Amino acid sequence: MHHRYGGPASFNGPWSGTGKQVSRLRIHPARRDDSTSLELTDDKWNEELMNEYDDGIKYDDDALGELFRNLEARGYLKNTLVVVTSDHGESLGEHHIAYHGEALYREQIYVPLVFWFPGHVPAGKRVSGVISNASIPATVMSVLSFAPVADFRRPTLDALWSGSAPNSNAGVVSEVAQIYPTAAEDLVSEKLVPTAMQGAMKSLTTDQWQLITHERLGNQLYDHTRDPHELKDVFSAADSHAIVGKLMFQLQSTIQGKPSHPDVEHNPSRSSLEK
Ligand SMILES: [Zn+2]
Predict the structure, then answer these.
(1) How far is the CA of 199 from the centre of ligand 1 (A)?
(2) Quick one: CA dihedral 88, 94, 97, 98, positive or negative?
(3) How many C-beta atoms surround the C-beta of residue 206 within 10 A?
(4) I want to staple 204 with a disulfide (CB 3.0 to 4.6 A). Which of 107, 134, 164, 251 is the partner?
(5) H helices within 177-221, ranges in order?
(6) Are 170 and 160 in contact (CB under 8 A)?
(7) Is 271 within 8 Å of 257 (Cβ atoms)?
(8) 98: which strand partners?
(9) Is the predicted pLDDT of residue 48 greater than 90, yes or no?
(10) Taking the C-alpha atoms of 216, 221, 227 and 228 in order, what is their torsion angle to the nearest 10 degrees?
(11) 209 CA to middle of ligand 1, Å?
């Protein structure tokens, strides 16, 4: 979802109650110079923004309902695979950041991914574990019973819900190129955390760990199982040494086209990047 949140002006969302977007992202307290805590700094303000964001989700959900009703009315439901996902998450003040594209914390890279195909994909089944949107092409081919395509960089996901094979998806690479601030407010988060405004960033996400590298400002490591909001950077902790080496190697080898899972090892020359 993109700012302004809340759906079109004609949509009266149930949470913001006004029918008008607050849309004050640019003056979010997370972006003020006096902000020193990693926690959200202005609950009231943030509640309004969250309400507006929730309205946007409701608007999207309503739109999906309309899509499904139309598919049903036209008799297409039996042979239509619907995939719902997003190209990024959103920061609503976490890590002093608003919007998206400035960093690779989980709130910016964790997205919905739904495959809906009655009779072919089990209804209501949730799969845990880190996977990549780069698996969508291979999964679509597999679910629709087409022959696999060798160039796809990530394996199909249908084994995760059919239970026929272990998850070989561990370790997902995300990248963001250097971006340039478009408003003075952007510069505030730049002073508080390493962001893409100062240089390109990459990350490797596993079920437990998130390694984030910055081309100029060093590295961060978060233990998602103990610190789900990624508030405590343990990159330099003494007992992180072994895992840092392992994750750095995995990040580099994946970017260089040598991921460790067998589905793509036959295609080591590819240098394309995945989200
Ligand atoms: Zn987008």
Answers:
(1) 20
(2) positive
(3) 18
(4) 251
(5) 186-192
(6) no
(7) yes
(8) 92
(9) no
(10) 70
(11) 25
Q: What's the pLDDT tens digit per position in 228-256?
A: 999 999 999 999 999 999 999 999 988 88
- Cis, bond preceding 4 (omega within 30 deg of 0): yes
pLDDT (0 to 100) of residue 167: 58
What count of residues does the chain have? 275
**Residue type (1 letter), 212:** I
Interval between CA 111 and ligand 1 midpoint (Å): 11
Domain ranges (residues) in the chain: 81-264
Q: DSSP code of 137?
A: H
> 40-51: b or e for each residue (b if 16 or more CB lie within 10 Å)?
bbeeebbebbbb
Measured in angstroms, how far is the CA atom of residue 134 from the centroid of ligand 1?
16
Tokens representing residue 222 in the block: 């978060």
pLDDT in tens, 166-224: 656 568 999 999 988 776 666 666 678 899 999 999 999 999 999 999 999 999 999 99
CATH node for 81-264: 3.40.720.10
* Res 29: pLDDT: 53
pLDDT for the residue numbered 19: 44
